[in-house]
Amino acid sequence: MLQITDTGIVVEQLSVIHQRLEAGFRRIYGEDINLDADSPDGQIVGLFSQELANINQVIAVIVQMLDPYNATGAWLEQRAMYAGLVRRGAKFSYLDEVIITGNAGVTVPAGTVLTDDNRVKWVTLIDATLNNNGSAQVKLRSQELGSFTLQPNKELKMETVIVGVEKVITTKEAKAGSEEETDGNFLLRFMRSHSINNHDDRQGIEAALLDLPDVKQARVYENDTNQTDIRGVPPHSMNAVVMGGRNEDIALAILKKKAGGCGLMGAISYWCEYSGAERTVKFDRAEMVDIRVKIIIDRINGFQDIDTDGIKSSLAATEFAIGESVYAMRLTCRVNTISGFYIKSITVNGVDSAPIGVRQCAQIKPESVEVLIE
């Protein structure tokens, strides 16, 4: 039967439960009872055995979900709340300064749906009336939560045609939103949060930065020597490289964690008041580096269609850490999630690898992926 031990719980398998119930029935009714699978008593034993096995399985899952390192979904969120962490939700993407042209006086109502070449839907946030020159400038928001990209000078199509509207053109690159934080990323942030209470510690500062709203990545370099190190960090100083978040939150988090007398370096200087004194905090923003990927593939079966858009989206979903170089062969596992072909060659920026600086972060955009089918 189910047992609770110092190391957890021990549950019986279905076959063991079935044998135990059969033995119990024979003790009660005698050895001559018919417990064959097609007999009424045998079917009752089978039914009871299955239900007990189901209950054991539910209990085992509940116990597993109480462990934050095994929990998923809402169970993980509940465990993480003990550390003061909340799952980061998805955010909308935005298009600023979109130009609508057509006949003067035409009104485009709020909530009008437009579609781009990637079949992503965007909606107007307010009513827009074309001026005497026959144009209006509006701001659009993605219809769904998530990270969507779109380049300038792209035409959008209206789902419902409005008479008098000729063109809708983007003028700026989309401000990509974000997807809901995955269980894996949330658990990683939870594990890093164990270091938040550390002082004068690189991991402690990184954990504090990663816990800030909208901070996606953080990397802290420290140099405790008397000479400038190979990363350019001066003696007895540290350099925080951050992606996302507000400058004031980042500066305050660094001030609270760093030891007195420790120097700071970075291209960004933010002034703030802390502990009754005026302080200037220096740190860096991660420079995003676009990676061009060229992949040559061949069909496995004749003229089978290849989902090239899926290949591009899969590669664009690859996440890189700050300072992580990009190796072409390591991208093949992302591409292989799409079926129907095999890879003949793959390069990044025309070579096998793309080095990334310690204050840079690589990214792959769908439009930077070239797929050739031979």
UniProtKB/TrEMBL annotation:
Provenance organism: Xenorhabdus hominickii
Xref: PANTHER family: PHAGE-LIKE ELEMENT PBSX PROTEIN XKDT, PROTEIN JAYE-RELATED
Superkingdom, natural source: Bacteria
InterPro entries reported in the protein's UniProt record: Barrel_Baseplate_J-like, Phage_Baseplate_Assmbl_Protein
Sequence ranges assigned to domain Baseplate protein J-like barrel in this UniProt record: 98-174
Entry protein name: Bacteriophage protein
